[in-house]
Design brief:
about 190 residues; alpha+beta; 8 helices; 6 strands; elongated
Length: about 190
């Protein structure tokens, strides 16, 4: 069945046209808060089912070959003037809802990648379950470490994701609790939505 690989994994409303995918890539690379890696682009766009993996990979290679974007020594993409012109001029060829969803997903993926470097978590099997070993790094040293028992791998994986997403708040809570700053702790807890 021709065409199946092209649309496989793309939700209704996602992009199935390679020209639109290339425009979206220029738009994302031009508008992302920071230079963006291929892994972040893939993770964000595929998680939202906005594009097919193979079309994404081919389109990334093509926009780089065309001189619309380039990678730096850390393999992160930067938009070039011709790519910015494509993004600015042709962005309306990509539905606004797709552009907004994709940019939001890329921004969150970049934030998660930054957090994962500072808030590390590892799932380790133990008797009758798993230990989630969490550590917070600051300036190339470990500032804080704790371990918590989880009954199954799924709950451990969910807790790991939350630790990486919310490591700063968790660290603040622990410091305030350990230092006896009860009023500050209450204020912080009042602002947290569960």
């Amino acid at each position: 069945m021709p065409g199946n690989a092209f649309t496989a994994g793309v939700k209704p409303g996602g992009l199935t046209d390679s020209t639109q995918i290339r425009i979206l890539l220029c738009y994302l690379i031009a508008n992302a808060p920071q230079p963006v890696s291929q892994e972040v682009l893939e993770g964000a766009l595929l998680q939202q089912a906005l594009v097919n993996y193979f079309e994404l990979a081919a389109s990334l290679a093509e926009v780089e070959r065309q001189g619309l974007v380039q990678r730096d020594s850390a393999q992160r993409y930067h938009v070039l003037p011709s790519g910015r012109e494509v993004a600015d001029t042709l962005q309306s060829d990509v539905p606004r809802s797709v552009r907004e969803c994709a940019l939001r997903a890329v921004t969150l993926a970049q934030q998660y990648a930054r957090n994962a470097q500072q808030y590390a978590a590892e799932i380790v099997p133990c008797e009758n379950g798993f230990q989630l070993q969490c550590a917070i790094r600051d300036l190339d040293s470990e500032a804080f470490r704790f371990s918590v028992y989880m009954p199954d791998k799924q709950s451990a994986a969910r807790a790991k994701e939350q630790f990486i997403k919310n490591g700063a708040d968790i660290y603040k809570l622990m410091l305030l609790a350990l230092t006896g700053k009860d009023e500050s702790l209450r204020e912080l807890l009042a602002g947290i939505q569960i």
